[in-house]
Amino acid sequence: VLSHNLCTVLNVPHDPVALEEHFRDDDEGPVSNQGYMPYLNKFILEKVQGNFDKVEFNRMCWTLCAKKNLPKSLLLISDEDAFKVWVIFNFLSEDKYPLIIVPEEIEYFLKKLTEAMGAGWQQEQFDHYKIALNTSREGLSAWELIDLIGSGQFSKGMDRQTVSMAINEVFNELILDVLKQGYMLKKGHKRKNWTERWFVLKPNIISYYVSEDLRDKKGDIMLDGNCCVEALPDKDGKKCLFLIKCLDKSFEISASDKKKKQEWIQAIQTTVNLLRGGHPPPHKEARQKRKELRQKLLAEQEELERQMKELQTANENKQKELETVRKQLEAAAARAAEEEKKRLQTQVELQDRFSLELEREKMVRQKMEEQVAQKSSELEQYLQRVRELEEMYKQLQEALEDEKQARQDEETVRKLQARLLEEESAKRAELEKWHLQQQQTIQMTEAEKQELENQRLIKERALQVAMQQLEQLELERKEALEQYEEVKKKLETAANNTKSWKDKVAHHEGLIRLIEPGSKNPHLITNWGPAAFTEAELEQRQKSWKGKKATSE
């Protein structure tokens, strides 16, 4: 069952016949020729191609060992979080069996967790823990690390959900190679609509899903050294736009704000630069550098220990030589007691000489001890310098990021200024064109104004002539009215006379009627009553008016 499950997880074809052939003889143990370890190496592990789900493989290994080794004490983290801590331990542990995680890697992991939780790093507390750890062992096992995280010693004041989210974030970065993730809007290639997607950036691919549970995957953006990312201006009501250009396709994406837009552009550009240079992800490269630094420090410490051993061996040899000389002196004194007095001076001289040598050896030993102490102090200073260099490296990275941001802002401002200058030049040309048109219009208006002024003067003169003619006609009308009144009075007088004459004739002559002459021409009617002139007089006056008008024009 174990072999079949391993083959399934590792995408290796299972061969039950080989399994039966291998275990045909009596089993003499798991590492014997017929044991399980040789079968595992030969028929399973040697066939692995690397195209398998490492998380599922880790989960299977966790299932095999967790129940037996997981601490029985009450942990503040769930079993899923314990599994993720176990996988992180396998990534950060040393490459020797039994697996342990050294204090430097423990500090790195705890710093990552603290940063993900949004808390401050307690260096003094970890230094005390590190001192207590170094006095008893070289590092922690996987289960001791789980117990350390689950005890809440370095996450006091944080709830379980915050610790779980921090573990998940560190797991995504270190194990799943997730460099950045978050919600953004993506423009479709066919329907051209904008849809919210959960984007996950990895060292060579950007995957986007319906939601952050990663269940419904909608597509991938394959990254390589030829890809590039650039910011876009706001359009179609969308803001914070940027474009990812690949060889076969381009993707328009809208971030939630300018900060997220800049973070995504910088993260994608950093990933493309790593692909161009053939470098591993940042956390893997940092782990390799920490490992090389530890190996270098270990080699220096071993060299220092070797020198100490050589000094100790030389000192022991000198002690042995002194002991041999002392025994020889004692033997010579026993054999030649009669020559005691003669050789006394020689013995005193020898003792003085060897005392001087002893003093010299003591001084040499003291100097060696001082050198060892000095080397230890230099080693501590070197370690402190290494930590300072790491901090300086982080500051340089931040300064480089700020400089990149400043350059991008400067480039954006420069482009904006160039565009404003172009718009200003276009507007200036347009204004000059309008000015010329206005000058031409003003000249034409002046000419038209002059012509209208001449026409006005002509019309004024005609109006004055017409007014004079009107006044003349008014005078003539008044004269005609006066003549009409006089004629009317004469007619009334004549009518009265005629009436009295008729009465008299009727009274004296009875029914006799006189025959009265009638009007020869029809009467003309004006606005003021019957006209006082005939049609012939009217035609004569019209001819006179027309002649005067022609003369005035």
Automatic annotation (TrEMBL):
Main location group: membrane
Keyword Coiled coil attached: yes
InterPro entries from the UniProt entry: EF-hand_SWAP70_N, PH-like_dom_sf, PH_domain, PH_SWAP70
Pfam families the UniProt entry points to: EF-hand_SWAP70_N (PF25530), PH (PF00169)
GO MF annotations, alphabetized: DNA binding
Gene3D superfamilies: Pleckstrin-homology domain (PH domain)/Phosphotyrosine-binding domain (PTB)
Localization per record: Cell membrane; Cell projection, Lamellipodium; Cytoplasm; Nucleus
Coiled-coil stretches: 283-504
GO CC term, one of those recorded: plasma membrane
The keyword Transport belongs to this UniProt entry's keyword annotation: no
PH domain span: 177-273
Transmembrane segments: none
Subunit structure: The SWAP complex consists of NPM1, NCL, PARP1 and SWAP70.
PANTHER family: SWAP-70 RECOMBINASE, SWITCH-ASSOCIATED PROTEIN 70
Name used for this protein in its record: Switch-associated protein 70
Record gene name: Swap70
